[in-house]
Fold this sequence. Notes:
alpha+beta, Hypothetical protein af1432, two-stranded antiparallel sheet, 16 helices, 9 strands
Amino acid sequence: MLSEKEKIDLITQIGLDINRVKDLDLLLERILTNARKIFNADAGSIYLKEGDHLRFSYTQNDTLQRRLGPGKKLVYATFTIPIDKQSIAGYVAKSCESVSIPDVYGMSNAMPYCWDSGFDKVSRYTTRSMLTVPLTNHRGDVLGVMQMINAQDDAGSVIRFSRADESLIMHFATSAALALERAQMNRNMILRMINMAELRDPSETGPHVNRVGTYSLEIYDQLARTRSMSAEQVDHQRDVLRMAAMVHDVGKIAISDVILKKPHHLTAEEFEIVKRHTYKGARLFEEIHSDFEESAVEVALNHHERWDGTGYPGHIDPLTERALPGFEGPNGKPIPKREHEIPLFARIVAVADAYDVLCSRRCYKEPWDEDRILDELYRSSGTHFDPEIVNAFFSCLDVLKSIGKRYPEGKGG
């Protein structure tokens, strides 16, 4: 176990680290991973405030993770609880006070809150010690709640969280809340861009882009494991990939809603107009000042290229809308990109986007059933899609299905 001084030093170091993470979902992962490391907790969860409720937004559990085996991830469902004094997390959000419980099964009935053992029964996990703290910004507004579960000693036995930990975790929570507020601002700005695109294309919703972004991330994680990529490289790339994937179709704001909302198949002329959303979207990020903007250009421009070289828009300059020198095809049109000419992130988003579109209702189609969707993706490997990406997709399919339930339509971003 870490000494109190080592914990303080680690909190300072981690505070700097999490401030560099821009994407909200990845920040939740980083916050919880580091908090459990500092306080040697077996498990933990983060709830984010939504109106007068808390949404169960992220969780980790080492004991349950070990049961899954290498390369697998926990599948969890989200739910909401009211911010009131009935539940532990609700009480902490309502009172803005931390709560430390040595043993939830021995908790006094005199407490204003209660604990639901349903999760333990379903998962065959035993919760004992619990430390729950509010995540508040500089104005004192509650952004969410973080819950640490089952502190451990050096031998791995469950112990209570110490008095010193109760004080230290509040310092960590303060840093985490500041980073969380910035990440929520980033997410909200991206979703505002999506809302503008939705004025043209009603299928371009907050839940859709969140699903595509999170699907892309899971596929990339699986690919990284297969390729044995370094953790440092993966961590940096994950942050920009998720945000770039969310804005893959933002160029549709430049396309007439008469075409995008058409309930029937498009004419050849109309489809040519729709194709413009790729380089129109890339043009929105033409002044590149960050890795995110660079990746956003790559994804927006290339996510409709095909592995076999029959996609669009091809080797094109988004500013001039002309073929790049040396890549002119018939009639001067750009030659399509193929295979590894297509940037990796765009190849990943192509699969993630196609999966979500096939799962979803559109003005021109009903959702496909699962067998038909998976058969289509399998058959498109090596033609439409990079075979390596399709393999990664099927390897994490269970997690992808849970993500789909996490971002249902009608729930906003």
